[in-house]
């Protein structure tokens, strides 16, 4: 058995095992250790509990998503396509990796939220708002109001999470996954545009 493992190896292995699990509590440190080929006690050197590992994978997942999103946006050739790709990235990430979606939005980790996860989430949100603001600038010729952009993007993302949650629970209106991805992408982009345009007529 391996005697030396790294924190990064543990996180990568955990994420690979979680990728398509519908119940993350069916996974534990012993199974992860078996996959790594080491004693489960080795994992306690880095993670005192399974919840500690869940928080670390939650932070790592956000970094994985941002790399995927950036790659998608870099490949888009027009502002309209970039807007579509922006929201398509969420649908792809969540539906292609259902266990990761559960980790991101359904799993209760119970304990106090670590500083790393808070900082990673803040950094992710800042980067997302920067991307969408630049896309809007390319579409409209000017940068949108930062506070309103943050609010509209948050609400649009909540729509995406709700739509995918309904689908995973077998209560969605669209049963075909490919059709659902296309629908979410289209509706989210439209929702974002209409809400941001409408905000110009709303007195805050």
Strand content: under 5%
**Fraction of residues in helices?**
over 70%
Using the coordinates shown, work out and report the CATH topology: Tetracycline Repressor, domain 2
What structural category characterises the helix and strand content?
mainly alpha
Q: How many E strands?
A: 0
The H-level CATH homologous superfamily, spelled out, is Tetracycline Repressor, domain 2
- Number of H/I helices: 9
**How many discrete domains?**
1
Report the principal-axis shape: elongated
Query: What order do the helices and strands follow?
Result: HHHHHHHHH
Q: Tell me the span between the first and last alpha carbons.
A: 62 Å
List the helices and strands and how they pair.
Blueprint: H1 7-18, H2 29-36, H3 40-43, H4 50-75, H5 79-96, H6 98-105, H7 115-140, H8 146-168, H9 177-199
């Amino acid at each position: 058995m391996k005697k030396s493992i790294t924190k990064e190896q543990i996180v990568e292995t955990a994420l690979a095992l979680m990728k398509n699990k519908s119940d993350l509590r069916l996974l534990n440190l012993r199974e992860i250790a078996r996959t790594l080929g080491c004693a489960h006690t080795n994992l306690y050197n880095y993670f005192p509990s399974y919840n500690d590992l869940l928080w670390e994978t939650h932070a790592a997942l956000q970094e994985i998503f941002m790399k995927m999103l950036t790659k998608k946006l870099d490949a888009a050739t027009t502002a309209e396509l970039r807007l579509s790709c922006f929201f398509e990235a969420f649908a792809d990430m969540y539906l292609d990796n259902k266990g990761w979606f559960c980790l991101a939005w359904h799993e209760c980790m119970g304990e106090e939220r670590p500083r790393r996860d808070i900082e990673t989430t803040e950094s992710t949100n800042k980067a997302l708002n920067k991307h969408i603001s630049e896309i809007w600038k390319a579409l409209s010729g000017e940068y949108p109001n930062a506070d309103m952009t943050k609010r509209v993007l948050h609400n649009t993302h909540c729509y995406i999470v709700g739509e995918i949650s309904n689908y995973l629970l077998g209560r969605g209106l669209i049963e075909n996954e490919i059709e659902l991805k296309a629908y979410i992408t289209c509706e989210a982009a439209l929702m974002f545009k209409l809400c941001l345009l409408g905000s110009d007529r709303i007195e805050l």
